[in-house]
Amino acid sequence: MIVYRLSKKKYSNSLSGKGAAKSGNRWNSKGTEIIYSAESRALAMAEVAVHLTLATLPSDYVMVEIDIPDDIQIKVLEQKDIPEYWNNHPPNASTQKIGDEFIEALDFCVLKVPSAVVSGDFNFLINPYHKHFKKITIAAVSDFLFDRRILK
Length: 152
Description:
7 strands; alpha+beta
């Protein structure tokens, strides 16, 4: 399976989760390394675009295609396990706890979670500490230009 990550060019050649650990996000608390990816290029772009303004529209982003081999099991976060108000902004501790526990448990290398930005779409969280993480590779990196009309 190919998943997508929109990244600054200088961080595009490796997968570490260190960027997410710096501030914490919806599915991880500060200090927890996790790699965010999306099921499509469009979702990867939307997940980044919600944090931008026309004045801060970057020109140094690339689309990273990540290959997750078919033999890696993916845990799906079930609807019953998603807390109420999970998609609030800013994110709350209940969703961060889910991601932190996923990383700590080491049971799965990938966790499929709903997107808070695009209802009905999904993101894939990758655990850089799982024993099968080394099987996940960067398949391609290509320049990405934001269409300025997105942020009119």
